[in-house]
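Hello again,

I reread your note about wanting to compare the complex against the isolated chains. To keep things tidy I'm splitting this into two emails, and this first one only covers the full assembly. Below are the input lines as submitted, including protein chains and any nucleic acid or small-molecule components. They are followed by the predicted structure of everything together. The single-chain runs will come separately.
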Amino acid sequence: MSAQILTAAPLASPHAHAGGGVSLVMAKVMLALAPATLYGFWLYGWPAVHLWWITVLAALFGEAFCLRLMRRPALPALKDGSAALTGWLLALSLPPWAPAWLGALGGLFATVVAKQMFGGLGQNLFNPAMVARVALLISFPVAMTQWVAPLPLGSTGAPDFVQGLRIVLNGIPNLDAVASASLLGFAKTELSRGIDLLHTTVPALSFVGERAGSLGETSALLIAAGGLALVWLRVISWHIPVAMLAGLAIPALVAHAADPARYLAAPTHLLSGAAMLGAFFIATDYVTSPNTRLGQLIFGAGCGFLTWVIRTYGGYPEGVAFAVLLMNAATPAIDRLVRPRIYGRDRRGKPLET
Amino acid sequence: MGLMEKFLALIEPAHWGVHPDDRKRPAADAPVRALPLPERLYVPLQQHIGAAARPIVLAGQKVKKGQLIAEAQGATSAAIHAPTSGIVTAIGEVTAPHPSGLPVAAIVVEADGEDAWIETESVDPFALPPQEIARRVAAAGVVGLGGATFPSALKLGLGLKAKIHTLIVNGGECEPYLSCDDRLMRDRAPEIVDGIRLMLVATGAQKALVGIEDNKPEAIAAMAAAARPFREIEVRPVPARYPMGSEKHLFSELTGMEVPADGRTTDLGALVHNVGTAFAVHEALRHGRPLVERLVTVNGGAVAFPGNIRVPVGALVEEVLAFAGLKEEPARLVMGGPMMGSLLPHARVPVVKGTSGVLALTANEAAAHAPGPCIRCSSCVRACPVGLLPLEMSARIAAGALSAAVDLGLKDCIACGCCAYVCPSRIPLVQYFNHAKGELAAQSRAQLRNEAAKRLAAARAERLEREAKEKAEAALRRKAERMAQKAAEAAAAAGKTPESEATA
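Full-complex prediction:
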C-alpha cells in the first residue's frame, strides 16, 4: 500500500456506527401499525382501504412536490418513510368511509403545510398528522364526524372493491343505513341534551372494535399491542405512553367516582377515540416531543390531562389531536427547562463542590 | 440524594454511554508478535501533550537503542530516545499521524541491525526517594499511554503537591477493536504490578485500584494473581461500557465520587494512570529502559492476521500493516480506536508513543454515510456520558451560534463519539463539536492578539503623548534658560552684576 490518500476530506471520529437509520425506525413504526390497520381494513372494508392509500399517496405527493419546488432531490426524502407514516397516521384518524378528497386534502396539508413549510423532516413544531386532522375537523366538521358501523369484508352488504371506490369518490349512497355514532360523540350529544349517562345506553365498549370509530380507535387493542412492540424494540420509551394514559385515566377515575352520571369511566376514556393511537404513535413522535425522560413524562401527562379536559368540557367529543398540538407547542419550553445534569455540575449547571 | 434526584434516577437510570460491538477477539487472543526491525525509523519530536522535544543529536551521529536524542523543552514536554541502535541520518519532517496530514519534525534513525541498548545501571528503585522516581520516569520519556500522552512524571509530581490517597490504574480499554492493554495485562501482569507499586511510592498514595472491564476475564485473573501479595493493590472488574476508560468515568465507577466540572481527580485525592504507563514505569526504573517501543493492536476487517504487535516508536504504519497482512484495500485507516481514533491521511506515518492501535477498516465497518436531517430522536442525549444535549449543540453550531453551544455545555464535551455512534441520521456530531472548539480557540487567540495589539497601541499613544509633553517641557526649559541667559547678558552689558541688582 502506497502513500495514497484514502479520503478527501478530514473526518472526525467515531469510525464506527451502531447501525440502523431513520428509514429503519419508520419501517418499525409502520410494522407496528400494520396489524391494527389490517384489522381495520377487514372491519370497514374496501372504502377504508381506498381512503388509506389515497391519504398516504397524497402525503407522499405533497412531500415530493415541495422538495421539487426547492430543487432538492425528492427520492431520498420519500424513502425515509416519514411522509408515508404521516399519511398513514392521518388515515387511521379519519372516519373509515370518509370521502377521498378529505384524505387527499389532509395528506397534502400534513406534508406541505405542517411539515415542509417548517423546513421539512425534524423542523416541524407540530405533529403533521394531527395538524392535518385538526384542520380538516375545523373546516369540514360534518365529513369528519360521519362515522359508520363496522361492516366486515365478506359480510352481506359489504361493498366490493369497485363499490368501495365509488363510496370514497361519490359519497355514501344510503347514509342512514350505515351511520353510527362514535362512543365519545354519542356521550357528548346525550350530555348536551341533558340526558345523563346512567339513563342512556352508551354503545358497548369493545376491545376488538365492534363499534363505530376511526381505524385507529376501533382496534385500540391492536394499536396498544403495536405500541408495546415499539417499546420492546426500543423505538420508543415507556415514558410518554404511560404518562399520557395516566394523565387521561387518573382524572377520569376521580371524576367518574364522584359523578358517574356526568363523567365517563376511565376504561371508556382509554379505549375510545385516539387515546391509544395518540399515546403510542402520535405523542411519541420524536420531532415534536421533548428530549429528556423527565420532559417526556411532563409532556405525556399534559397530553393525557388535556385530552380529558377537552373531551369532558370542550366543544368537541374527542381531544387527543388538540391536546397533542397544545403540548407540541409547549415542547420547546419543556426542553429549555428540563435538561439532563452535566457530569461534574449540579442541575443548575454550577460545578460541584469538592 | 434528594427526593427529586431519587425520582430522576428511577425514570432516567444512569444508562450513559453505549455498548458497541467490541470486536476485540480474535486479535486479543493472538500471541504478541514483534515487528521485524525496520530499516529506518522516523521518530517525531512531538509525541506528547506540550512542547516538542529539542533534538540533541546531529545528522551522521551514531546512537544506541534508548539513547536520549531529544530533550524535554519547557514545563510540559517529554524526552525522546532512539528506538534502535544506528545512525541519525536526518532531522527532517514526516507526515504526522493526524487527519490533517501536516508534517511534523522528526529524527530519522537508520538501524544498524544490532539493536544494541545503552549501558543501563540496575538499582533497587524502592530505595529511591519519590522525587527521584518521578525524575527517572521523566528521563525515560514516559507519557500517558491511554491516549492522552500527558507526560507521566508531571502527573506523578502532582501527587506530591496535591494530597493523593488513591492511585487508579486504568485497564478499562473500552474502545472496541483495541486489546493492547488486555494483552499486556495477560502477559506482563507482575511487571505492571511492580510499576503500580513504584507509582504508589512516587505519589505517596496508600492504595491502588485497578479498574478492568469485565469483557477481559483473562486480564482480570492475571492481574488479580499478580497483585495478590500486595494488599494495597486491588483489582476491580467494572462493567464493559464505552467510555468506561474515560478518566473521570472510571474514577466515578470505582470511587462513587464525581469530579467537579472545574476540577480534576487530584482534587478528590486520586490520580489516574494507564496500565501501559505502569509497565513503562517498571521498565524505566527496573531496567533503565526508556519508552522506545509499545504494543500496538492491529485490527480491522481488512487485516489478514489481526493481533498485537510490539512496534518500535518511529516505525511506519505501512510496515506494521504489511507485517500483519492486508486481505483487502482498507476503506479507512485509523490510529487508535474506532470511537476516538484519528483518521490517517495515508500509511506512511510513524507509530508514536500514544499509538494504541492501527485499524484498517473495510467500507462496511467504517460506516461512512451521508448525513440526513436530525429527527430529534434524542438517542444522542441518552448516549452522552456527560449529560449533554448533542442535538441542540450541533443545531446551534450549524447556525453559527457558538456561544449558545457553549452555554449548553460544549466545553464539557469529551469527544467520546457516543452521540455520533448512535445517531440514526448519521450526523457527524463530533466533527461539529471539534469544529466549534477549534473555532472558539481561534477566537480566543484572536481576542488575546487584539487585546495585546490594543495594549501596545495604548502604550504607544501614551509614549507619544509623554514624549510630546517632555519635548514641550524641554522647549520651555530651554526657553527659560535662554531668557535667563539673555537677562544675565543684558545685566552684564549694563555694567551691573545681578547680585548688586538683587541687593539694590
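For quick reference: The mean pLDDT of chain B is 90.

B.
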